[in-house]
Amino acid sequence: MPHDDEPEDLPGFGPPPLPDDRLWRHPSELGSAQSVTILTPRPDRRRTAGIGVLSGVLGAAAMLIAVVALGGFDHQRGVAVSQIQVSAPKDPAPSELAIADRALPAVARVDVVRSTGGSSGTAIIFRNDGHLLTTAEVVEGADLVSVQLSDGRTMKAAVVGVDRSSDLAVLKIDGSSFQTAVLGVDDHLQLGEPTIAIESLAGKAGAPNVSVGLISALRRRVDTNSGTSLHDMIQTNVRISESGAGAVLIDSSGAVIGLLTHRGMPTTSIVSAVTDSTTRSATLVPRYATPIDYARQIADELILTGRVAHPWLGVKSSDLSDDQADRLGRSGARVDDVAIGSPAADADLHVGDVIVGVDGDRAIASSSDLVVALRRHHPGDPVGINYLRGGEEQVAIATLVENGSLP
After folding, report:
1. Region 110-118 average pLDDT
2. Are residues 66 and 130 located together in one domain of the fold?
3. Residue 96 parent element (H or E)
């Protein structure tokens, strides 16, 4: 009797289909590929479909990726295709220009006409059905938008949606089978990691500006002149022009890791030594990029509904001082105000409470951490809020609502 793990010749089994006839590839057939293709059906309220993605790492660098369609796709409506980077070693060997060259086919210039004048910015094609992702400042208030692709073609673009609070926007051009950017993995970013910025400049078709820098900080909170804040931002020292809104930030694999914004860019003066023992003043201008994971989340919602429903707890919070954190023995977000009738009020949160966790497994060390943790949810979601009151940790259940939904 053969063992259970030995091969058996069962009826109906035969040699596997050729690579071009199946949805998955063995690592030996992938070569140096570092992305998985995601199929997304066009939004349809009458029908839903899902995609499961299974990725495993074999040894140090090999990957096995399978894409399984869980629901039927209606090919008459079409399927949107995007590329998401999977865990794989980044290759620092190619030159910066060679790395940037991989991303260039999916980088486009956006030209905008307004009653107050014209401007331009940069966008990336992230779905092959012609959806592009850029920053809100590029297209906000536009009367007419056009996109120039890397091959020189100029096309009219429709604004699908704009979300100013996250400084993101989605555009749509007619057509299909556009080459898409590979979207990176935010969780794997490290301080000091090389980055490359690509921006398409007005009047210079096919000649984008490429700048090299490093990641100098992660999870930054950026306060803007309009009174809003951007959270979980990537800080880098790449150089982009004053008209470089929407510039694309990529890693050493050529995958997009963020979109650069001009909102909230402080300038600080630093002093550096030079070889002749004298010193001179230099200007450091940090640039901030919205992480691509969050950008994609916002983009998908804009495509589906044309707007973004941001979850709201109903508290204003601040970071603990070092002395306060030492007394408590941990960091957290101090509740400074609770809105009347808000989910926080219904959950009996009080001013002075210190929020230290969300859903029990996500530690909160700052007010920005709280914002980032909550935006992973949707209005209507119940969330567990771990907080300290009188030195004792307690848990409250709050059901989030859409921001601005209360009178």
Report:
1. 90
2. no
3. helix 96-103
- Look at 335 and 269; give whichever has higher pLDDT: 335
Residue 4 lies in a domain: no
Instruction: Tell me: do 107 and 76 sit in the same domain.
Output: no
Place of tokens 């490290």: 190
pLDDT band at residue 5 under the 50/70/90 scheme = very low
Residues 343 and 383 placed together within one structural domain of the fold: yes
> Within 256-389, where are the H helices?
292-305, 322-328, 343-346, 367-374
Q: How far apart are CA 255 and CA 36, in angstroms?
A: 12
Q: Which residue has the higher pLDDT, 25 or 352?
A: 352
Q: Residues 206, 107: contact at Cβ < 8 Å?
A: no
Asked whether residue 232 falls in the same domain as residue 115, the answer is yes
CA angle 51, 55, 61 (to 5 degrees): 150
Q: Are 265 and 159 in contact (CB under 8 A)?
A: no
Ramachandran region, residue 131 (left: φ > 0; alpha: ψ -120 to 50; beta: rest): beta
Cα–Cα distance for residue pair 363/294, rounded to 1 Å? 19
Q: Which domain range does residue 35 map to? A: 19-89
Per-residue burial over 148-178, b = 16 or more CB atoms within 10 Å of its CB, e = otherwise: bbbeeeeeebebbbbbeebbbbbbbbeeeeb
Residues above pLDDT 90, as percent of the chain = 48
pLDDT of 309-335, one tens digit each?
999 999 999 999 999 999 999 999 999
Computed on alpha carbons and rounded to an integer, the radius of gyration of the chain in Å comes to 24
250 neighbors 284 (Cβ within 8 angstroms): no
Residues forming a β-bridge with 341: none
Which of 155, 160, 156 lies closest to 171, judged by CA?
160
The model's pLDDT over 355-397, given as tens digits with 9 standing for 90+, comes to 999 998 789 999 999 999 999 999 999 999 999 999 899 999 9
